Amino acid sequence: MAAVGAVVPETENGAAAAEVDPQRVRNVDRVINDFLHYLKKRRPSNTGPSADLAIRAVETLRDVMSQVRWSHAADLIVLIQLAGSRLKTGLPTSDIVDNMVRRVARLVREAYIECMAELGDKSTGFLSESSTAASLHEILLGAGEAEGGDGGLVVQFKGLKPKVITLMNDELDDLKDGTFNIAQVALEHIHSDEVIMTAGHSTTVEEFLKKAAAKRTFQVFVAESAPSYSGQEMALRLGQAGIETTLITDSAIFAVMSRVNKVIIGTHLVMADGGLMARNGCHALALAAKHHSVPVLVCSAMFKLCPKFPCAHSVEMFNHMHNPAEIIPYSKGKAVGDASIVHPLFDYVPPDLVSLFISNIGANAPSYIYRLLSEYYDE
Fold first, then answer.
1. Is the pLDDT of residue 115 over 70?
2. How far is CA 108 from the centre of its chain?
3. Are 300 and 364 within 8 A, CB to CB?
4. Which end of the chain is more exposed for a tag (fewer CB within 10 A), N or C?
5. Which of 210, 206, 204 is nearest to 187 (CA)?
6. How far is CA 16 from the centre of its chain?
7. Which of 368, 336, 189 is nearest to 270 (CA)?
8. Could you give the count of Cα atoms lying within 13 Å of 152 in the half-sphere of its Cβ?
9. For residue 48, what pLDDT band results from cuts at 50, 70 and 90?
10. pLDDT digits over 91-114, tens only?
């Protein structure tokens, strides 16, 4: 099996030079456009909107790999990065898609290492047996830079493509079963006669509580999470499942917290420092829990793990602003006058306010998140 040339150099924009191939760009865009068209018409699924997006992103990257020509692992990673950049153009606020691009790049490297191992040369490649022991400094710098880049990924293997597809199919199974797997450990964290508080609606938390309610009796307080009031839907579903549920206003969280044994919430993203990008109102909920020494448990699948650090000067930059008309309708514009209405979708919850993360691969403290990053993602 002959080795091909070195990896193509990067352009001024940081993208690989292979990206300038017009035919390759057209082929990638054709697949990406189908994905973006799907996003406009997608319907809610049992896996939840975030998991549904992650599943579709991996399926799209698998289609790109199958329909666009590539020669070796390094070229395939360039192709995946190209697809990721095009997806980012169509979905500028979707960090979950970015996560899946990094995850698929990691799977490609793992498949390449398997091929090299079968060839009898385990010393060549991006990963090594000691790669999981990389320091936080190496993770921040980028493992590719620390190990010498993609120079070891240029050997051509006929068996590489089926191995990558197998790993991607396994990843899709993990994404589809993520909520189910998290719910299986509910009995380890919820005990009889406990009082639990949550905020808004989360598919993962809903299934987590329902699973525990099959064998345990407990009470749940649900904060309505204005202005979306998704907590009302959460309270309705838990009540229909036979769980004693009380819907409370957001302003009553602190008053009720003294009666609560633990707080269980979902999140949009888990940041690299162990903090949360959670629905608005969760920061106040976590602060109230800390004041009353109530543990905060976060149910989140691994695909929500995000290798980004929210710096003090950029906490507001990573948020997404929603339509202010949901708070004050346009019909009342004259009454508002020159007032500025801000409607952030998320809160940043610092890691010191989180007690435990419960994912589909186990439970971990916020301080362990950086290790999960090195094991799960690739630059």
1. yes
2. 19
3. no
4. N
5. 210
6. 25
7. 368
8. 20
9. low
10. 666 788 889 999 999 999 999 988
| pLDDT score at 134 | 44
Do 272 and 309 contact (CB within 8 A), yes or no? yes
With tokens 């990573």, the residue in question is 318
pLDDT given at position 319 = 74
* 333-371 per-position pLDDT tens digit: 676 777 777 778 888 999 999 999 999 998 999 999 988
Tokens for 204?
A: 């993962």
pLDDT value for 45: 46
Residues sharing a CB contact under 8 Å with residue 112, sequence separation 6 or more, in sequence order: 73, 125, 126, 153, 155, 157, 160
State both tokens at 286. 């976590």
What is the token pair recorded at 354? 């989180």
* Exposed e or buried b per residue across 209-235, where buried means at least 16 C-beta atoms within 10 angstroms of its C-beta: bbbbbeebebbbbbbbbbebebbebbb
Which two three-digit tokens encode residue 15? 């993208």
User: At 28, which amino acid appears?
Assistant: V
Residue 227, preceding peptide bond in cis (omega within 30° of 0): yes
Closest CA to 289 of 268, 266, 261, 250: 261
Structure tokens belonging to residue 51: 């998991």
Angle CA(140)–CA(143)–CA(144) in degrees, nearest 5? Answer: 125
Cβ(197)–Cβ(220) below 8 Å: yes
CA angle 255, 256, 262 (to 5 degrees): 130
Rg of the chain in Å (alpha carbons): 23
